[in-house]
Amino acid sequence: xxxxxxxxxxxxxxxxxxxxxxxxxxxxxxxxxxxxxxxxxxxxxxxxxxxxxxxxxxxxxxxxxxxxxxxxxxxxxxxxxxxxxxxxxxxxxxxxxxxxxxxxxxxxxxxxxxxxxxxxxxxxxxxxxxxxxxxxxxxxxxxxxxxxxxxxxxxxxxxxxxxxxxxxxxxxxxxxxxxxxxxxxxxxxxxxxxxxxxxxxxxxxxxxxxxxxxxxxxxxxxxxxxxxxxxxxxxxxxxxxxxxxxxxxxxxxxxxxxxxxxxxxxxxxxxxxxxxxxxxxxxxxx
Length: 286
Description:
Blueprint: E1 5-8, H1 14-28, E2 32-38, H2 53-59, H3 61-74, E3 79-85, H4 88-96, E4 101-105, H5 111-119, E5 124-127, E6 142-145, H6 150-166, E7 170-176, E8 183-186, H7 199-214, E9 220-226, H8 229-236, E10 242-247, H9 252-258, H10 261-268, E11 273-277
Parallel strand pairs: 1-2, 1-4, 2-3, 4-5, 6-7, 6-10, 7-9, 10-11
Antiparallel strand pairs: 5-11, 8-9
Helix pairs in contact: 2-3, 4-5, 6-7, 8-10
């Protein structure tokens, strides 16, 4: 993997993002770019855009300590620190253009996360602490939302790759208001029977099959949850290792009509969330 994992560090949630990004880089062998956006006029702002550890130590000991620990863990040649000043969302979006994955904290106000999700050029992982999922049906899984759309297929590819690299089980989830009950199905629940198989399970089977053949080592579970889409995905994320959703890059009109599902899920899910965008020119017009 030549393209790096980029992570926004410092600030609210930034250290959680760093921890997640370090584990990801360690598992995949990817280089890691740490992006710290400082306040204009601060001591860090007066340094070079790629300061030495000694320079950072004088201005921000906590950041310097984190960089040293990260380089010790991954190897100094694999970790770069970039310091910028100004609007974090602008610099994070810029960093995403050359990255395989962008990792950010959930933040406090939501403005930066919202802008990054709408404009990033690569998948974005929004990291927040996982709530205990003891007894949750999909706890410990990489959970991916499935609806048959191109965006969901991009998310499926990302989710299967992540599950295979980390040796995690995967749960493919479809949320529908047409069903009265939740359904869970995997290769071990052979005692589960339906008078007629829900259409949603047929959709899941069709969408999952190509990736199951490509990644035979990944244990797969399928689930159909009832209710509004964002609500169902948030519920599915309880105890999950990662919740993966496709971002259709809907325009202003579509978001006003159906809601901003990526923003809602990343703001309220009880686990880290990966938002996988469509490629350039594939999103909906404004």
